[in-house]
Protein: Putative pterin-4-alpha-carbinolamine dehydratase
Organism: Microbaculum marinisediminis
Amino acid sequence: MAKTLTPEERATALADLPDWHAVDGRDAIARSFTFQNFNEAFGFMARVALVAEKMDHHPEWTNVYGKVDVVLMSHDAGGVTDRDIRLAAAMDRIAADFPM
Ligand SMILES: C[C@H](O)[C@H](O)[C@H]1CNC2=NC(N)=NC(=O)C2=N1
């Protein structure tokens, strides 16, 4: 099981992910993505789902029309690990392929 990042390690990682923020009251990180419509949002989610399954690391997320709210944490470790940072970076790369 991966170990959770220290507050310093998490802060350093988040500095490279400026659209992500720490969640209050929970060892987790979050970002909202806003796409032009449901089709774009769901296309993004479909692509992320393939990556998440390959990583065996799955987001907590909700979708309303063009908006996708994501929270990432490693449930087995009980907080943010390197897997969450890698999935967050992958989500940012995939989102860049969609008009926002
Ligand atoms: C058995 C399987 O490897 C685990 O349930 C995986 C699946 N996806 C997961 N995703 C997340 N975010 N945290 C986990 O601890 C986790 N565990």
